[in-house]
Design goal:
Helix content is 39%, strand content 17%. It contains 10 helices and 13 strands. The strands form 4 sheets. The chain has a 7-stranded parallel β-sheet with strand order 3-2-1-4-5-6-11, with helices on both faces. It has a two-stranded parallel sheet with strand order 7-10. A two-stranded parallel sheet has the order 8-13. α1 crosses α6 and α7 packs across α10. The longest helix has 22 residues. The radius of gyration is 20 Å and the shape is globular.
């Protein structure tokens, strides 16, 4: 029986396909939307049994073509652009599509693992998987929040098979190059440094010093490992934060990125103060357009994930970015 990965040509989806391949799994149907054709490169070194457009796949699901054929669905496909304010598209693409796959998996009694988002918390200061801490600031966050609410109701009624939603925090790592401005800070820092020898971060705002706004940065390696852990443990259902469990400032990402690049250049590592003093790290004025709409601090409470039995350590920014830069340089030369 086949495993389906939606968003398979995307950032997290393609990393999941590669990890499944590393386990010897090749009976994989990759589902995506390749209107942006350059995403295909993420699947070039993957082994899959078939590729389907996302609309063709949902039509085949509805007509019963896949009844009894699928072992599990890992649903990573979504529009993740938080600046896309087309609510009709976002709800159809993120909410309704997820709901249809969920209903299929429940009818077929097969595991359904899906991508939720830390955007469900909005400007909250407590990042715990409880309704009182949630309040999305944009329609992207709302599309994820609404399906999480459906799952909560259905869990009370009783599920026929595993359903696990993962609230991804700030994920970074290989195969995100197609995401453009929505790619991670580490990706943009790397390209800035390679192009100009400098990295630019937002200056101080809302009580935060230059570059000290802090996020929970989580390596895609850890995201993949958690998905596979739940695939291996189909008795575990629920909504789980998926972050590192620690907040680190944007300054840490910049320092880690620059020093990893300097290592490849045969140069010594520099401290944050030295990077600023030498003009390698610059701070720009905080954008007016983001004021009042910006999460200056996120930190996943991963207690529920740990209680579910996932006990592997999460990579720090320093560890994860170092590996990521090695991958980027090997890819770009």
């Amino acid at each position: 029986m086949t495993i389906v990965v939606t968003g398979a040509a995307g950032f997290i989806g393609s990393n999941i396909v590669k990890a499944l391949n590393a386990r010897g799994e090749t009976d994989i149907i990759a589902v995506d939307n390749l209107t942006r054709g350059d995403k295909f490169v993420n699947l070039v070194d993957c082994e899959i049994s078939d590729y389907l457009d996302k609309q063709d796949f949902i039509s085949l699901i509805g007509s019963g073509d896949f009844d009894g054929e699928i072992r599990a669905i890992l649903h990573q496909g979504a529009c993740s652009d938080t600046m896309n304010h087309d609510g009709k598209y976002m709800m159809e693409n993120n909410y309704q599509y997820t709901l249809e796959l969920f209903e299929f998996c429940q009818a077929e009694e097969i595991p359904f693992l899906y991508a939720s988002s830390a955007a469900t918390y909005g400007k909250g200061s407590v990042f715990k998987e409880e309704r009182q801490h949630e309040g999305p600031l944009n329609v992207y966050g709302y599309s994820k929040f609404l399906f999480d609410q459906v799952l909560r109701r259905r869990m009370k009624e009783g599920l026929t098979a595993q359903v696990a939603g993962f609230r991804y925090f700030n994920v970074y790592g290989p195969q995100e190059q197609h995401k453009g401005r929505m790619a991670s800070v580490a990706f943009h820092n790397f390209n800035q440094y390679r192009e100009s020898g400098k990295v630019k971060l937002f200056g101080g705002y809302d009580g935060w010093d230059n570059g000290s706004q802090s996020r929970d940065f989580v390596s895609v390696e850890d995201v993949v490992n958690v998905n596979l852990f739940f695939l291996d443990n189909p008795d575990k259902s629920g909504i789980f934060n998926l972050g590192s469990g620690r907040a680190q400032p944007f300054n840490d990402v910049a320092v880690a990125t620059v020093n990893a690049c300097r290592r490849h250049e045969g140069l010594p590592a520099l401290t944050l103060a030295e990077l600023v003093q030498q003009g390698i790290l610059e701070y720009i004025e905080f954008p007016e357009a983001l004021k009042g709409k910006y999460q200056s601090f996120t930190q996943a409470d991963i207690g529920k994930l740990r209680e579910a039995g996932y006990d592997a350590p999460m990579l720090t920014v320093e560890q994860g970015v170092d590996r990521y830069v090695d991958w980027l340089i090997a890819r770009q030369g």
